[in-house]
Amino acid sequence: MVKVDKFIHDSIEKIRKDIKGRAIIALSGGVDSSVCAVLAHRAIGDMLTPIYIDTGLMRKGETERIKTIFSDMNLKVVDAKVNFLTALKGQTDPEKKRKAVGEAFIREFEKDARKLGARYLIQGTIYPDRIESEGGIKSHHNVGGLPSVIDFEGIVEPIADLYKDEVREVARALGLPKEISDRMPFPGPGLSVRIIGEVTEEKLDVVREANAIVEEELVEQFAPWQTFAALIEKGTGVKGDVRVHGWIIAVRAVSSRDGMTAESMELPWSVLRKIESRITSEIPNVSRVLYDLTPKPPATIEFE
Ligand code: XMP
Fold first, then answer.
1. Which residue among 27, 127, 301, 304 is best mutated to probe the pocket of ligand 1, counting the most ligand atoms within 8 A of its Cβ?
2. Model pLDDT, residue 206
3. Residue range 195-217, pLDDT digits in tens
4. How confident is the model at residue 135 (pLDDT cuts 50, 70, 90)?
5. Is 259 in the pocket of ligand 1 (CB under 6 A)?
6. Ligand 1: which residue has its CA nearest to atom 6?
7. What structural domains and CATH numbers belong to the chain?
8. Which ranges of 19-163 does DSSP label H, i.e. alpha helix?
């Protein structure tokens, strides 16, 4: 994108023109919603309430991180962990899980929007989200859910025409910390799409720890477009002298331009071995670690 400053100026003007009342935005801590929150805050100041919903499906330390970074905005943090786990209980189908998370978001949002008297919703939808949802690949929950159900006067999507790398450029120009501008994408439904089958608290604890280890080992050193761990199922292993039925964790690291296609990264064997060793020794009840070689297509980046 050639004219970042012009984009910023024009979107602030447009937000000011489109929003004639109190507005809310769901802040996830990712680069998309953060950019939108800053643009909207510059446009309408305290008429904006950013809401961070702690779904319990977030990465390790995420909630504390968000509170610190956005402490100068009117940030509202909602603890909705129990609601999300309840909504996901018994759900094994990937699309139903996505819808369940989307609906739990809607319910939280409706409550908060009503309390605040907010008539406008700002969303960090970007171009690839629209293409993939319209193409019927997956229902990205920030596109498929909120707008149709909540009776807002207006939905504003300031970065709906941008690709991810363009959003990052805007983030840098807005002065957001590198921690946000260079942040890997993280899906709206959170860790629920990194657990095959039903989501439980135990699986969430395992996959959250595994994600933290993978990020520690790979993000700085290899700057992948996206890297994470997913929990597959249980398999037989042996720990000490005892046979165990432990979790299988898959590690994924991809390079990509915009998430529409992706290549599995060729990582040094020693690094992969270190990740395996840390995951199996630091997380109880994990007995096997795999590395995913599949490009997109035929796989998607996430496991569900
Ligand atoms: P896939 O797995 O479809 O992912 O190859 C492409 C990019 O989109 C992210 N992703 C999502 N983001 N809601 C989101 O906001 C979703 O439901 C969702 N599913 C996937 C994924 O992490 C990758 O960056």
1. 301
2. 98
3. 999 999 999 999 999 999 999 99
4. low
5. yes
6. 259
7. 4-182 (3.40.50.620), 194-291 (3.30.300.10)
8. 31-44, 62-69, 81-88, 94-116, 127-134, 141-144, 146-149
